[in-house]
Every structure is written in structure tokens, then in C-alpha cells.
Amino acid sequence: MMKIENLPSIFTKALPVLEQLENAGFEAYFVGGAVRDLLLKRHIHDIDIATSAYPEEVKKLFPKTIDTGIKHGTVTVLYAGGSYEITTFRTESGYQDYRRPDHVTFVQNLSEDLKRRDFTINALAMNTQGEIIDLFDGINDLQKRLIKAVGDPEQRFHEDALRMMRAVRFMSQLKFSLADETKRAVLVNHKLLRKISVERIRDEFVKMGVGPDSRAAFNVFLETKLSEDVPAFAGESDSLKVYPQLKFSPSLETSLWSVIIIILKIPNEQIGQFMHEWKNSNAMTTDVEQIVALFDLLSDRSPSDYELFTAGKSTLLNAIDVAHILGQPIDSKALVDRYVALPIKATSELAIDGRFLIERGVKPGPQLGQILTTIKEEVVNGQLENSKEAITAFLKRKQILNVK
Ligand code: ATP
Ligand code: MG
């Protein structure tokens, strides 16, 4: 049995939680992603614990808990500044609709719990002694860098079709391959993905897309025809084949959506619809629309200072990132230098505002907005100094303010 001698502090900090459960007569283990990432020496972002104790029993043992998913057996325990999801050993049964178990059944042993997990590398557990419980040869698959279903892959995808998206997501995040039989099972069952909610598919798709090996994972996403059963991608596999050939992988979600929209040649007025089909937020949609618009502009010509100003820093950096990913040659250093040199970066930095103009006799209304925009353009272009005096003089010269 493999034994980890020096546990990282994120685990040792959680040890008293496991020990408390054990002292009360229950079993408790670290499980899932944290154990996998420990063996892979990856960053560990959260710790999941599996136990034989029922949720009510867990709640009795710890003063601070949150009912995260009592019905599914999950209680979050807050302990010494950390928060831990503690889930009762369970099996899932009666997957009638390819989505979620009809009911979960609590069980008394770890092995039943590990059996319901998706992939062998996610079905590892570790006890308080640092000993790894590996019932499905997950350590071997970690070494071979394989994503492999626990048990019969077809059956597992029938139980929960989201697992097919999780397979390509982990490929990208971990830079792993998909085991042959598991891959075949995805190819045979890809249509089951239609039973899964768009939000859940999107979350896995985005994790795949911003993972370090998303181009290889995307290839399998296309090969297995999963791409035919997600929003807006059906019939687009020829265009999408560009994705695995990209110069770089996106690491931002905004870049991912922008790159895909550009690859699919979606016109600007249809970006909203596309993002909506994927159930993206309005904020994400607006960001992506602006990034794609600026990318189009940058691909065509050099932007004016005022266009750089309106785009703003984050859209500019994101559009440059997108150009980089697509291998579109643009002089990003020159663009950033020009942006940095802009006299103002936001309207709020203007030396005057609407009230300043009203106090000097300009009537509130559309014309006021026009005047402010003109001043802003002049200041951004470096034509007009950003001071009350210079702006007042400018407005008098233009006979916008009456000469006193
Ligand atoms: P990360 O949190 O780093 O994305 P993870 O492996 O912790 O990766 P989670 O989605 O947090 O992934 O799930 C935690 C664990 O629960 C997994 O490691 C796996 O054992 C199990 N699991 C999660 N989703 C499923 C599923 N759809 N089918 C079977 N087991 C699952
Ligand atoms: Mg997790």
C-alpha cells in the first residue's frame, strides 16, 4: 500500500476533523480530487472527506456546520479557518433519466462509495495515516496519465451522461489521455449528453477550454462527437477543427468564448444569441462582444486613441490575448504602450463634468452629452489639456460658453 509520509499542510490542518470522526467510532477518509492532486503534486484547492457517519451525526460532532446537501449526505464543516465538505458514504441508484440518481442510499463501507465515482483517478481515498486506498488501480492510471471510467464505461455514462464531458475536461486540466474503452463508450453514447442541462455542460466545457491541454481535449470532444450535442455546435465540426490547431490555448473564459465565436464566424449581432444558448451571463456576453469587436478592428487597421480609450484596458488586453491565441499578427507592445500613454483612462478622470457645464449655463440634455464627448475626444487625442482652465478656454473659443 502506498503511504504518503509528509502530508502538505492543507491536509494536516484537516486531520483533526477526520480524527474527531474516528474517535466517535466512524470511518473517515480524504477522497476525490484532493487525493488525486496530492499524488500529481498539483495545487490542491479544496478537501473532500467521506465518512460512515450520517449527516446528523456529523453535525453533532462539530459546532460549526452548513447544510450543503443534506439529502445527498453532504455537510460542510467549518474548522480552524478551513471549510470541509463531508459526505456520507453512499451509492446512487436508479438513474432513470441519465442525469441524477433517483435516490442516494447511504452505505457503511468506503468501497461502495468509491465504486460510484467517475474515473479511477478520482476514486482514490487516503486515511489519517497517509495510506492510499486504491481499489480500481487509479495510481497506475495516474502514472499512465489515463482518464478511465470506474467499471463499465457505457453503463457509467448511462447513469450520468455529464461524465463524458468530465472526461474531456480532466484530459485538458491534467494533460491526460482518454483510455481506449472509455473513449469508445463516449463515441457510442455522446447523444445522451442532450439529457444534461446546458449549465452543467457549460461548466465542464469551460474548465476544458481554459485547461492547459484544451487543444488535445477539444480534438477528442470533436472525435467522439460530443460537440454535436452541445449548444450551437451541431454541424460546425469543420469550423471547429481549427481549435486544436490554435497557436496557444486560452486561459481566460472570455478568451475561450471569443476565440470560438471568431472561429465559427458568428457575426457581432448574433453573439448575444450564441452566448444565450450556452446560458452565459449578460456580463460575460457584453465582455465577449466588446473583445470580438475590438479584435475585428485590430485585425483590420490601427485603432485611434479614442477607440483604445473606449475599449478600455481589460478589453484591449483580452483582444490582444485572443489575437495571440489565433496567431493573428498584431503589434501588441505598441498598442499597450499607446494605451498606457493615454492622457486619461476613464471619463471620471476628466477635469470637468456635466455639473461644471450646467453651472456655466449649458442646458441639461442631449447637447450636454455631445459637448462632454467632444471634450473627452479632444483630451484623449492629446489635443486639449485636461485642466479646467484649458477646457474652459476651448469651450469659449468654440463659442459653447459665452465669453465673459
Ligand atoms: P476539481 O474540484 O479539481 O475540479 P474534483 O475531482 O474534485 O476536481 P469535483 O467535481 O469537485 O471534481 O468532484 C469531487 C469528486 O466527486 C470527484 O473526484 C469524483 O470522485 C466525484 N464525482 C464528481 N462528479 C461525479 C460524477 N458526475 N460522477 C461520479 N463521480 C463524480
Ligand atoms: Mg472538487
List the helices and strands and how they pair.
Elements: H1 9-12, H2 15-23, E1 28-31, H3 33-39, E2 48-51, H4 55-61, E3 65-69, E4 74-79, E5 82-88, E6 90-93, E7 103-106, H5 110-115, E8 125-126, E9 132-133, H6 138-144, E10 146-147, H7 153-159, H8 162-174, E11 177-178, H9 180-189, H10 198-209, H11 214-223, H12 237-240, H13 253-263, H14 271-277, H15 282-300, H16 305-311, H17 313-326, H18 332-340, H19 354-359, H20 366-380, H21 388-397
Parallel strand pairs: 2-5, 10-11
Antiparallel strand pairs: 1-2, 1-8, 3-4, 4-5, 6-7, 8-9
Describe the structure.
With 404 residues, the chain is an alpha+beta fold. The protein has 4 domains: 1-144, Beta Polymerase, domain 2, CATH 3.30.460; 146-245, Hydrophobic Seed Protein, CATH 1.10.110; 246-342, Methane Monooxygenase Hydroxylase, Chain G, domain 1 (Up-down Bundle); 348-397, Serum Albumin, Chain A, Domain 1, CATH 1.10.246. The protein has helices spanning 9-12, 15-23, 33-39, 55-61, 110-115, 138-144, 153-159, 162-174, 180-189, 198-209, 214-223, 237-240, 253-263, 271-277, 282-300, 305-311, 313-326, 332-340, 354-359, 366-380, 388-397, and strands at 28-31, 48-51, 65-69, 74-79, 82-88, 90-93, 103-106, 125-126, 132-133, 146-147, 177-178. The chain has a 7-stranded mixed β-sheet with strand order 3-4-5-2-1-8-9. A two-stranded antiparallel sheet has the order 6-7. A two-stranded parallel ribbon has the order 10-11. A hairpin with a 5-residue loop joins β8 and β9 (132-133). α13 (253-263) packs across α15 (282-300) and α13 (253-263) crosses α17 (313-326). The relative contact order is 0.06. Bound molecules: adenosine-5'-triphosphate (ATP) and magnesium ion (MG). Magnesium ion binds at residues 33, 46. Adenosine-5'-triphosphate (ATP) binds next to α8.
